[in-house]
Amino acid sequence: MLLIAAGLYLFLILVTYHRSDPGWSHSATEALTRNAGGAFGAWLSDLMLYLFGLSAYWWVALCLYLVVWGWRRMDGERRSARPPGRLAVELVGQRATAWSVDYACEVRTPPAASEVSV
Questions:
Q1: What is the average per-residue pLDDT within 60-86?
Q2: Fewer Cβ atoms within 10 Å of its own Cβ: the N or the C terminal residue of the chain?
Q3: Which residues contact 65 (CB under 8 A, 6 or more apart)?
Q4: Which pLDDT score is estimated for 98?
Q5: Is residue 35 a contact partner of residue 4, using CB atoms and an 8 Å limit?
């Protein structure tokens, strides 16, 4: 139940994120908070979007995945201590991290002198 509530709360605060709300990465002068999670929700959504970008929504998917995994485990469908699909999730996460690091570290050279107009 706690994971369901956490997943719904994360989804709610991420969807209702507004740039003018006070947050972790900036201060705001408006007293009105537009985030459905209140001031804490605005702060947390700003922090998550700052750190993870749109990948912050994967935290919602993780909560849903863990709820389904726990339900199946309680139901007796699977007796493994390891979540199903763990290797696939790890490989996709590793590849996504490598791509983002590769893109961030890409060397961008300035244009040649013949390409610059004066």
A1: 76
A2: C
A3: 83
A4: 76
A5: no
pLDDT on residue 116: 62
How many CA atoms does the CB half-sphere of 93 hold within 13 Å?
11
pLDDT, one tens digit per residue, over 21-53 is: 888 887 777 778 888 998 899 999 999 999 988
In angstroms, the Cα distances linking 112 to 108, 109, 115, 116, 118 are 12, 9, 5, 7, 13
CA 11 to chain centroid, in Å, comes to 10
d(CA 47, CA 36): 16
| Helical spans, DSSP H, in 1-118 | 2-15, 38-52, 57-75, 86-104
- 19: Cα separation from own chain's centroid: 16
